[in-house]
Amino acid sequence: MEVTRHPVEGDPADLRIRQLRASQMLRGELSDADLEAYVQERVGLTTLEKAQDWARANAPWPLTFGLACCAIEMISVVGSPRMDAARFGAEVFRASPRQADMIILSGRISIKMAPVIRRIYDQMLEPKWVISMGACASSAGMFNNYALVAGADKFLPVDVYVPGCPPRPEALMYGIIKLQNKIKGQPDLGWRERYNAYGTEERPGGVEVA
Amino acid sequence: MPDATGLELIAAGVRERFGDEAVVGTMYHREQPTLEVAPEAVRDTLGYLKDDAEESFELLMSVHGCDYFPDEPRLAVHYQLLAMQRTDRLGVRTRLGADDPHVPTVVDIFPGADFQEREVFDMFGVVFDGHPDHRRILMPEDYEGHPQRRDFPMGGEPVLFTFNEREMPRWYE
Amino acid sequence: MSEDATTGDAPATGVSGRPVDIPYREREQSVTLERMPAHREPVYGTEVEPETELFTINMGPHHPATHGVLRLLLTLEGEVVRSVTPIIGYVHTGIEKSCEDQSYWKVIPFVERMDYLAYYFNALAYCMAIERLLDEEVPPRAQYLRVIHLELNRIASHLFWLGTSALDLGAISLLWYALRDREKILDIFEMSSGQRLHPRYFQVGGVVEDIPPGFEQKVRGFLADMPSRIDQYEAILDRNEILLQRLKHVGQVPLETMLALGVTGPLLRAAGHPWDLRKATPYSSYDHFDFKIPIGTQGDNYDRYRVRMAEMRESLKIVEQALDGLPEGPYITDNRKVALPPRHELATSMEALIHHFKLVTEGFRVPPGETYAAVESPRGELGCFVVADGSAKPARVHMRDPSFVNLQALRHMSEGGLIADLIAAIAMLDPILGGIDR
Fold this sequence. Notes:
The complex is a heterotrimer of chains A (210), B (173) and C (438).
Chain A: H1 12-27, H2 32-42, H3 48-57, E1 62-63, H4 69-79, E2 102-106, H5 114-123, E3 129-133, H6 135-138, E4 160-162, H7 169-183, H8 191-194
Parallel strand pairs in A: 1-2, 2-3, 3-4
Helix pairs in contact in A: 3-7, 4-7
Chain B: H1 4-18, E1 23-29, E2 32-37, H2 42-52, E3 59-67, E4 75-83, E5 88-96, E6 102-104, H3 113-124, E7 127-129
Parallel strand pairs in B: 2-5, 6-7
Antiparallel strand pairs in B: 1-2, 3-4, 4-5
Chain C: H1 24-27, E1 55-59, E2 71-77, E3 80-87, H2 95-99, H3 104-112, H4 119-134, H5 140-169, H6 173-193, E4 202-203, E5 206-207, H7 215-237, H8 241-247, H9 255-261, H10 266-270, H11 277-280, H12 301-324, H13 350-361, E6 369-377, E7 380-388, E8 396-400, H14 402-406, H15 410-414, H16 419-429, H17 433-437
Antiparallel strand pairs in C: 1-2, 2-3, 4-5, 6-7, 7-8
Helix pairs in contact in C: 3-4, 4-5, 5-6, 5-12, 5-16, 6-7, 7-12
């Protein structure tokens, strides 16, 4: 194993000064001007909602819910060292719905399984989010037949849809990031927002746009 | 793989043992033999092929059904037998009509047919007389209909395009 | 007409011995040992009074230790499992029925998604069946390429099994190690076909595309690294005291029971029976390669684990031999009625254009007949039964999935043991619910 040592950037004297000031602050020895300067440097102000959302977004604990082939890719996200879900705070896959924040529906939803999923979703505590991973969970995928429920949104409110059959682990991570943005209150509204492309949608029913 | 003559010998053995009406026919397609028997004789034939035939097929690899819809008799149950020492495979087929199809079960001869016969019942409606646990296996217990029959509709929902999206009820309405 | 079929006059009985037309909840309550059908003697030798009430619990479809959505109805006496009833169907997708609506070419992606860890094997079983019905020859280069991908898929499937089974048994870090190596294999698959999972690389008559330059180097690099990795996994697990106590002499099923149930694959080989379709009825030029079939002696869970580890090593040998001997030539059959013509011909040849058009819109037609083709997947004998009626769509596609048949052995592996042994049994059984439910 290789061990490399890099010198710390910046002046080591600066670091020492900051450490001393911090210890002074903790002992209550800083006076008015110093104290104000210290507070301005270190303390941020925010609303409770924003702080809460930031905390929730950075630690979504998924429920272990693998159904079919997409589950393999989901396990690759959490289990493979290359695509690591731990950096999103999502490595802790809880088995109990009471302890999980997020359910990743990975795989095809058959008519026998749908009531089970609904029960498990109901058992989860608020706030909870749903990522519908893969084509089969978002619509029926390629299996448009008697045995599947055509999309999880028929019985669950879904927050993020991740298309693919199966979606690459990177795609699932992108979906988790989108969910994080949504939780923090800045939902990613899609490419029309990014490219300012409103005004070119197709009108339903063949209505002409003037 | 028993060749065409081997298949005829097997068919002759079954006929000799269980009567002429037991064997309905033989097929040899692409070097694969299939013996077609009458539904009542299925259990006896498989028992005979397992134990008493000179060239015995002691393993049952697969039980599956098929619906030859426009051809009558419509439903069929296929048994795929394997003889390990000679690496021989033999298919045994029996055809039934769709109204009141009954086949004797082979679970006591080949215990591995348990789940597979339940699947054939679930998907095609063929009733296996004497099966210890005769219920649906893949579909929900109270499902009506037998999905893999040819006249069962495929199901699913129509794909939404702009021309028909007004006619389909959406989940948020 | 009610769907509960009755056999003559006697009401049908469920596994617990009670008639099935009693409502479901009532049927599963208050089962006592004397009312259950005869089971094996308990391993732990305790005498049970017949009036003791047993505890029925549901190990539901959503459970971290069942590999997929498998539901088990357990009847427990303390920690000892008295009866296990698997209930499946929670991921039943109706693939076989959907296949009847697609042309033969389009069935390949459907069929790949059945046993979703051994996707090339599903495609191969189906393609072999169609090639047999069409009486098509597969060129040798395509056969070797198929073998390379199949054996790499076998290693990937066994690695995933290793990771998840070790997770179930408590050796959690192996999940990361096994998936790390599996990523390398998925990179190789991505190189040849563009997709990590379900690449629809096998076509009727060969493979869809030749391997790109750099493929061979990447595979050889993988082959050079992998044996030492397997050594590392074995070093962690083989002599581990906890693993030995959990797996040795646990879940032993006699060989006759396995054979009677139709169990194939590593479970049968661990019981001592050297049955492998690659050696018994070689297909796709497996007889050109020199490899061994690992078999076990006792048929317990530990042997199943060792058999799979050894199989990974043998697969590495096969891939190396296939790479060394890869012949030149076409990668798909020349029969334009079955395989798409190469793209450059479309600009110059009219028949190529017509063939392309016909194949893409309607697909090829298969003369009427039915056949059953079997391959050796990582879980056992994977067979594909195809009925063709002369049109461009198959009349029936059925996969004889090994996990479906092997699941019947779960009862024998775990009854009389403890719940923890049941978890180990499921892990060593390696069920894939996509294949079981189809």
